[in-house]
Amino acid sequence: MAQKTKSTGDERLDNIGSTLSKAEHFIDKHKKIIIYSISGIALIILSIWGYNNFIYGPKVIKAENEIYMAQMYYEMDSLNLALNGDGEHPGFLEIIDNYGGTPSGNLSHYYVGMIYLKQGLFEDAISELKKFKGKDNIIGPMATGCIGDAYLELGDQDNALKYYIKASKQSDNSFTTPMYLMRAAWVYEDMGNWDDAIELYEKIRNDYRKSYEGSEVNKYIARATAMKNTAQ
Q: What is the pLDDT along the chain (232 residues), one digit of tens a residue?
């Protein structure tokens, strides 16, 4: 019994030795290719590290410093200065051109879209806001909802409704969600879709009672219900 176990163990050792030998042979035969491959991977890693630390990183920091004045002008409602700069500090358009791949460049699309929306340039607003990639819980849904606002101003109720619903689902919170549910309900009312409007109003009442819209929603439910009964 002991001899059998030893024999099996020897066979395993032989198999391991054979495998190692084959591996050594393969490495020896292809060592140039392997060295070049490893060197190539190392070069790629070093290039990425160098880019992030010496090019992209400083560019991100510089963009953050550059956007500050444009944001100040926006808050002051000096929209043209925010958009085009003051001759010394860049506006959002220049930041997009110079720092398009940075977080500040991305955020500038949001600001430019909002400025165009305020200026009545609705198609331009839509274009800019669609370029903004917002993953946070507030600005992201607001950008989406403002696309809905722009479409509504253009008389495109279907797209306005689409983006209001999208904005309401983008982040579940007590600020943007009920706000865009309410706007979607208003569009349904304008379309005469009273049941859909009432359904959204009731969702606000049931799920977001403590929001501003929740405190106002009962009167909208009553109005929509009355209009529904009149239309029947």
A: 444 444 555 555 555 455 545 555 555 555 455 445 555 555 555 454 443 454 456 778 887 888 999 999 999 999 999 999 999 999 999 999 999 888 999 999 999 999 999 999 999 999 999 999 988 899 999 999 999 999 999 999 999 999 999 999 999 999 999 999 999 999 999 999 999 999 999 999 999 999 999 999 999 999 999 999 998 7
DSSP helix/strand/coil, 207: helix
Q: Is 173 helix (H, G, I), strand (E, B) or coil?
A: coil
Residue where the block lists tokens 């049931």: 206
User: 107: exposed, middle or buried (C-beta count within 10 Å: 0-12, 13-18, 19+)?
Assistant: buried
The residue type found at 84 is: N
User: What amino acid is encoded at 96 in this protein?
Assistant: I
For residue 142, CA distances in Å to 70, 90, 178, 196, 228 come to 20, 25, 12, 22, 30
